[in-house]
Amino acid sequence: MSKKLLALVGSPRKGGNTDTLVDEAVYVFYKAGGEAEKIYLNSVHIKPCQGCFACMENDGLDSVCIQQDDMMGIYQKMFEADFVLWATPIYMWSPTAQMKLYLDRLFPLGDYQNTRWRCALNGTPVGIIIVYAENDPLHSGVFQTRDILKVVAEASGGNTAFVIHSTVGEKGKTRQNVDLIQKVQEAVGKVVQGLD
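The chain above was modelled as a monomer; its predicted structure follows.
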């Protein structure tokens, strides 16, 4: 059975810099004989976490969350994936709202939970790609964005496989950044090798 990659794109800009790097990751995975699915979080319906704690009450839910929206399918795809990729640009010194909605809905997976969904990523490698417009990372918000993504991945039972971040400039500029593209390809290639 071929390995599966689930790539979650936090950018609302199809064909933008974040999307370009995700395409490179998907290409490497396909080339190695795997299957890949890319989900644009801007194009799916994800309700915000309501803080209702239904996911914690006696573990009585048949699904991960009481809310019935597109996260139901995303949870399933994520649990079936051999590798998960999270990619987001930085908006206002943090992940995009689209990515943050998704991350908040991983609350039932937290290592602080007492439900069957606790740490459900179960060692799945999670790759993280972050892009931003600032030339200076110290002014971009990259470190807090990295920390948010990394702590959610690991609290959910995943293993952070890599974190790649870079300034990218205007839309489409990433296609000209050979070094960054190579960095993504090599990082994904290492994950693929580790899945064998």
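The mean pLDDT is 91.
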